[in-house]
Amino acid sequence: MTTDAVIDVAGKYPEQQMAEWKVFHIEDAIYTGKHITSKLEQILKLGKEAVQE
To answer: What is the pLDDT of residues 19-45, one digit of tens each?
Structure first.
């Protein structure tokens, strides 16, 4: 796993707000109605990488 952090927030925010937050490593948002399978797969992958290190 790299030392870079990826932070997600809960809630749906305007695209402009999300773009501004990218400088703080806030990369994505989880909100009601969003298909989250890919997000859960990313989390699982990070966990597997951490175990291998």
So the answer is: 998 888 888 888 777 778 887 888 888
User: In terms of Cα–Cα distance, which of 33, 5, 31, 3 is closest to 17?
Assistant: 31
What pLDDT score does 20 carry?
A: 92
* Secondary structure string (H, E, C) spanning 1-53: CCCCCCEEEECCCCHHHHHHHHHHCEEEEECCCCCCHHHHHHHHHHHHHHHHC
Strands 26-30 and 7-10 come out as parallel
Please enumerate in sequence order all residues whose Cβ is within 8 A of that of 50, keeping only pairs 6 or more positions apart, or say none: 1
Q: What is the amino acid identity at position 20?
A: E
